[in-house]
């Protein structure tokens, strides 16, 4: 009868692999595997996932530029200030 081979961790040849990374398909041991929402990731893919998530979070939560309402408010405020300045500077107003 043939001996059964045990899958080993890609990072630790002396340890048995307990799972496979879903992104790169690398076999990982219990120390190298991290489960995120029940899915195994190796250390490298987990770091990449964190960077990708950080980039998406920064892009989606970045401070927006001028929205329509904000631009309108700036326009009204600047117009009022300019009107007041002109009233003070130009004589002969009513």
Name its key features.
two-stranded antiparallel sheet; 2 helices; 11% strand; two-stranded antiparallel ribbon; 2 domains; 94 residues; mainly alpha; single chain
Describe the model.
- This protein is mainly alpha-helical and 94 residues long.
- The protein is 44% helix and 11% strand.
- The protein has helices at residues 43-61, 68-89; strands at 19-20, 27-28, 34-36, 39-41.
- The longest helix is centred in the C-terminal third of the chain and has 22 residues, at 68-89.
- It is rod-shaped, with a radius of gyration of 31 Å.
- The termini are far apart.
- The mean pLDDT is 80.
In short:
The chain is mostly helical and 94 residues long. The chain has helices spanning 43-61, 68-89, and strands at residues 19-20, 27-28, 34-36, 39-41.
Could you outline the blueprint of secondary structure elements for this entry?
Blueprint: E1 19-20, E2 27-28, E3 34-36, E4 39-41, H1 43-61, H2 68-89
Antiparallel strand pairs: 1-2, 3-4
